[in-house]
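Rotation project, supervised by the postdoc (A.L.). Task for the rotation student: set up a whole-complex structure prediction and record inputs and outputs verbatim in this book. Inputs entered:
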Amino acid sequence: MKDKMPPLSRRKFLKTSLAAAAISAGAGSPLVKSLVPRAHASGARPPGQITSHYTACDMCFNRCGMIARVQNGVITKIDPNPAFLKSRGMLCARGNAATKHIYDPDRLKYPLRRAGKRGEGKWERISWEEALDYTAEKLLEIGEKYTRCGVMFIPGSDMQSQFVNRFAEVFGSYNITSHETLCLLSKNRAYLDTIGEVPYPDVYYSKYIIVAGANPFEAFITPDTMDFFEARKNGCKIIVLDPRFTKTAAMADEWYQIKPGTDMAFFLALCHVIAKEELYEAEGCCPVNTYGFEEFFLHIRKYTPEWAEKECGIPAQDIARIAREIAAAAPAAMVYPGRRTSDYEDSTQIRRAMAITNALLNNFDKPGGLLAIREVGVKTPYYDVPWYDDNPFDRVEAGLVPGLIDHEGSFQLMREAIISGEPYPIKGWFNFKTNFMQTAANRNKTIEMIDHLEFIVNIDIAMTDTAWYSDVVLPGASFLERKDPVSALQGSSACACAVFRDPVVPEMFESRSPFWICKELSKRMGLADSFDFTIDEYRRQQVDGLEGAMEAMENMGVYYNPSKTYGIYAGSPLKTLTGVKEIFNQRYEASGVDPMPVYRRPKQPAENQFRLVVGRTAFFTHSNTNNELLTEFMEENTLNIHPEPATRMGLSDGDLVEVKSKAGQGRLRLEFTEGIEKQTVYTATGFGALSPEMSLVHNKGASISELLEDYHDEISGNMAMHETFVSIRKVA
Amino acid sequence: MKKMIVMSMAAVIFASQIGIALAMFDGNPRKGRFIFRQECRPCHMENPIGPEPAHYLGPDAKRQAEWAEVFQNKEELPCFEHWKDVSADDLNDVFTYLHGGAADSPTPEKCG
Amino acid sequence: MKKKYCMVIDSSVCIDCKGCMVSCKVQHKVPRGRWRNWIKHTEPDFTMGKHTFVHFQPGNCMQCDNPTCVYACPSGATYKDEETGIVHINEGLCIGCGNCVVACPYGARYRHPEKRVPDKCDFCRDRLDMGLLPACVDTCPTKARTFGDMNDPDSEVSRLLRDRETVRVVSKPVDTEPNLFYMAGVMPLDWPGPVEYPAAYRAMTGFVNPLVKIAVGLSGLGVAAMFLKQIFTSDETSEDDSREEV
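Outputs recorded:
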């Protein structure tokens, strides 16, 4: 086929040249079934011709490698980078829709200053000069009046977030919090406290996987989502526990409609069977390489499969069988750690039960199990931080929960502190690309917090709900217009890699990167030294000593570090207090926290009430819904409900209902499905926007932030989003 | 090897006050961070710029017991001359910072 | 050597992520509400308990060897390219009658609201010219779709067709001989509709046995159409010269 010149195609097919991928992939890695472009185009091209540019996706947090095709200065198409192993050479619906992210008619075009009341929507256009002068003045003023810690910084989860973080630190505030405090903190806490680090699941080589409290086929975690299918081709069994019939459930070998919030019962019973029947590996696992196995053995005596069946609704014999099957497949077997774990007040303990199950499977640092953090080799350029003697001793929410992760904090607890003014006032908010008005439970409380703030500056690409309530809104450049620093990534066992971004097209309108904004502000605030560099200089420091890294990123869109994948610890102690896997956690005990997970029956909704659970589809990331290409799949969110209770209440499929919680209320259309537990209802995130400039989702459906009540994980301070009960009433 | 783990376990438990909060000792870890970056990091960063370039050091470079040991036997360090200029209070802050973010601490911290 | 492009689809790994649909929509600027490709699915039967499942099935124009759309086209605008096996639309010849849209039992064609001509999957001919895979194939996360030339015995599709049991999803009344092959076990199978020919054709061939009508009358027209197409479009690849390699 390569030799002929057919009339239709005068170009030869480039037969899948996996050379690039294969070299760095190493033996055993799956090959990417795709074509690579002929050349990485650069320089000026005559009009009409298509040029290709490597970049990394920003439609969620996975940073999948992509190739943007540009024609006449416009990005016309985005394709996956086939050499990008972390995403297995794919691009999901979100990534494909990035063209409508950059060319969104709702994009902010120039700096704005609030002219009316907050949320009223009156704005005046100002120049960048004025916006920066004004912002610098307000930040300094708050720093002067309330100490530097009087400004809360939320730097987002972006490749430039490190600059916002740096700006916050050189400004002198340590009240920096993150999106992660609404997301994966509970899981991180649980694994840190069990194996001393947050592992990556090696799905590809696994033979048995239990997925609980996760929906990887819709949430898209690279490369896990794709690897489930490769694993299955090699005989891996996938068990899914979910109150909802998600797409992950729909394609599992077995799906159990577990009662919400009872996962811990299932896993304790699983451990019960594994321990009692001595299915663990006595030589290398228990009790030798664990701490507290004997105590645990006694602790779980009462957690029998029969007991668990009554709690979680999964038949005892299935629990026992699954325990035997997974133990037989170990160590190439795992409980999938999940990602968003902001579910319950005891989410850290629920995930601890899963982490302990993994400990009994002895799968850490082994193929098909959980992977230790690999070396990528990207360095963090150094900067000086100032010290202000008048700054308070600690973060504003320090000590409110025993397991606060210092560099993450807890947005929810900060919000409480800001409202109460205790232990000290916070009066400013510097926000980048985070939309807590749409994503954080109890929006009314976020508005109350905003009422206590004197100044809010927001960098974003569009007028999000959070921007809508800000004082100064700065138009950010989209990821396709920016020059970004190097980002280090680990893709399970597929790779440890690094990527950067060069602008695919110039910044549109008056939009600017956060780097530029921080640099300009620092000049006006006497901090110029801290931003006295270019992105190129910064990158060079980042990859200093990594031979060929810069060239690989330029020529292939990604650099792979051939660092060790398995056996990283090789006998050296784990990063836990005891140096081994901690089934019994002594720090917990010292802080008055259950040292081993103790099952607590979840609160139950009253009759005609429902537990509201939330989640995401394969095509939206959180509140990133205002995209014309993606709303075509879902124009507004609905309320999934089981037909049995609904019919009993006289409700029909498609009815418009008012959904009410203690936090707020909203209107949603009912969508009947038998694929949901009978006392549970579900809705998707990202709708019911307050800002009319989110034109596709404004007044469409209801926002989860309006409906969810604010509970938090008692250990980590992570948000707990599945503790809310709602009542439903038909709208006449 | 098993024995080693047990021994290091004992050392760790002995050396560290068990608690889950970040600040384990009475110093000010944030001030400690500031001082560490001022005094130690120029020589101990990934790309050292200080007068006597040395290997990377941040809180996560050692375990809590190892930090305790470093501070107990500080006289033995090649850079001890430099330590003399740092006050006892400041040293306590630095120790609190390093110990609180050590590799085996509840929240390991890298010093960027 | 002539090519015969086809797709072999392993629908058992499709997770209904919509990646192929957005990729296609962007590549071909397909208007809102219209699609060149799709993902069908089965309905879950919850009485199956823990074994309840849904099977997703991605698809697009099947580039049939017995293309009812080509037969239905009165102007020769729709034709099957002998060199590639791809069914194309020459928009310059199209009179916008819409016959081809209803003649496709798979609903693979839609009428473009502005251009007033039908539009459908062409296996991303422009991308093939650039040495790229079709947009849906390239982007697919689980690589459910494999694309290639079945005339080339060394191609991945030929290998799959040889080594694996495959089936086609076919309209019951007319076997259009599609060139989309699915791994055996694909579901659902009952969705293709009937082939509807326009009233004028029915009148014209009404006195003949209906079977002969299809076999002779329309295929004759189809052949004529192919011929016309050859006259009008033989130089259609010349634009290729200006296209930049990427």
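Student's summary: The two ends of chain C are 25 Å apart (CA to CA).
Supervisor addendum: Chain C touches chain A through 57 residues (CB under 8 Å).
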